[in-house]
Amino acid sequence: MDDRELLRAAAATLGLALSDDQLARFLTFRDLLLEWNARMNLTAITEPRAVLVRHFVDSLAFLAGCDPATFDQPQHVLDVGSGAGLPGLALAIALPQWEVTSLEATGKKVRFQEAAITALRLPNAHAFIGRAEERAHDHAWRGRCDIVTARALATLPTLLEWCQPFAQVDGIVLAAKKGDLGAELAQGAHAAQILGGEPPEALPLPAALTALVPDLADGRVIIRVRQRHLSASRYPRPGAASVKSPL
Length: 247
Fold this sequence. Notes:
Helices cover 40% and strands 19% of the residues.
């Protein structure tokens, strides 16, 4: 199966139909990522097929935590700690009705995302430099998002402290995780409650997706926390408190 068909088939297992134009944009995104990566450290994954699977399909896998009915509806999405734009820009390509904002603390990665947004013609994508523990106290950002995503960001209690304050009531936080998560989920449940959310759910990837892409059949799940009420104004705590003293 060639790269386009793999992407198309993977998206279909998640209830999403990608057009030829969207598939072409994904391949252009890969070219840009690898080209820029030759000049700056954006990703340790440099084999083209691996970029497709471990970055793009892995990003689309966040949709396992979403209601497919929202795919054609406007959604305000924030990707926290987005790095090279994953999953944020991948979701912006796949779901043009969604308004996707990437928040990244490293300037060179934001510059790459801005160049990619222009090259890929993504009017629904925006990239900003900043730290979550600071931006979450800005009224223009706080409690505004339908969906907040995070990939390889931090342990669950810290991740939730950084992400939940951005979520509106009934919004969701989605985080990709894998491995033995028993203790981390228990700690995350305590943090989620303090921050105004329901207990975390660990959602497996669709069996059809892991059968199609065995590299993703490694125990990874999408953690979902639904926001019941807005987070208390003292969260997230400033500086390194959320890392050194997790909730």
